[in-house]
Write a structure and sequence with these properties.
The protein is α/β, with parallel strands linked by helices. The protein is built from 11 helices and 11 strands. Strands 3-2-1-4-9-6-10 form a 7-stranded mixed sheet, sandwiched between helices. Strands 5-11-7-8 form a 4-stranded mixed sheet. It is globular, with a radius of gyration of 19 Å.
Length: 311
């Protein structure tokens, strides 16, 4: 295990070894190789330990928490306490790094003054897109208006790389029981409010296969992950095809939004903007209003647990 790695990557996980192995392999396929990978189990009871050990890579270690937290906050905080790199990255246990992701993010942090950089993610949807022979559709997420951080957008934690000292400034991930929004977006919001420089890097570097969008994903084998891992190995032009499909989907969605653009703008300015501005002044994440429909603090996370079948 490297004594002073440049990047510490933290993967929080719970009983998802069948997807975790693909996520770990995507890290090992990175062009940038000066990293340590800390896999933190949320009291895993499956074969996660064996999965991690099977790689035989000294840069990878597994720590299994003795008690369940039930969300990412506990494992991520434990991983941060163990991290030794100058930079830190979180990676969800069902996402994929593209080979040049870490290299580009580290280069941006090394040459610029950003405290955190994030990239757009290609989100794989469980439906056929425009690509022949590909049973998935892709959209891009994490691209805000004017390319500046906007609390109303969603930025997957897998897309961040940041300076280690930023974690000390922001503090630990909070439990979903303390708020309406999910812990990842709360942490990034607090980083922004602390005055951290958050920099958008316009290069798709992560493929997200969201468990929260797939009913029963925790109690079934993911054919999407199996397909993507094989596709990435055998199709050298997969990146261009993903971007092509995402561009077509974006154009189609844009046409739909154009039909209702005036109504949307009117509602946003007349109803939502004043509320969002007030919440920001109070230091409250503006998405909290929308999340209240799930029933109290932590409601959205409880909904995801029921939907995905997490025990």
């Amino acid at each position: 295990m490297p004594e002073n790695p440049t990047v510490s990557i933290i993967i929080p996980t719970y009983n998802r070894s069948q997807t975790l192995r693909h996520t770990i392999q995507s890290v090992r396929g990175s062009q940038f190789d000066d990293w340590e990978l800390i896999v933190v189990g949320d009291a895993c009871t499956d074969d996660t330990a064996e999965c991690v050990a099977s790689f035989g890579d000294p840069r990878i270690r597994f720590v299994n928490l003795p008690d369940r937290c039930g969300d990412q906050s506990g494992p991520n905080n434990h991983g941060l306490a163990l991290a030794r790199g100058r930079y830190v990255a979180f990676l969800n246990h069902d996402d994929f790094y593209l080979p040049d992701h870490l290299a580009k993010c580290v280069a941006e942090l090394e040459t610029g003054d950003a405290d955190l950089v994030w990239v757009p993610c290609a989100v794989a949807h469980a439906k056929a897109g425009t690509l022949q022979g590909v049973p998935l559709s892709f959209t891009l997420q994490g691209v805000p208006h004017d390319f500046a951080y906007d609390p109303l957008a969603t930025y997957f934690a897998s897309s961040w790389v940041f300076r280690r000292e930023l974690a000390d400034r922001v503090g630990p991930w909070r439990s979903p029981k303390e708020m309406f929004v999910v812990p990842s977006q709360d942490w990034l919001f607090r980083a922004w409010r602390s005055g951290a420089r958050l920099q958008f890097l316009p290069s798709v570097g992560v493929v997200v296969v969201s468990a929260g969008a797939r009913r029963g994903s925790y109690i079934s084998i993911s054919s999407d992950h199996e397909f993507l891992a094989k596709w990435f190995r055998e199709e050298p032009g997969y990146r261009e095809k993903i971007l092509e499909d995402a561009a077509i989907n974006e154009a189609a969605n844009g046409m739909l939004m154009h039909r209702h653009a005036k109504v949307v703008r009117l509602l946003r300015w007349a109803l939502l903007r004043p509320v969002h501005a007030l919440l920001l002044r109070l230091g409250i994440h503006p998405s909290s209003v929308a999340m209240m429909v799930y029933g109290g603090r932590g409601g959205f996370v409880r909904h995801l647990r029921r939907f995905t079948g997490v025990k």
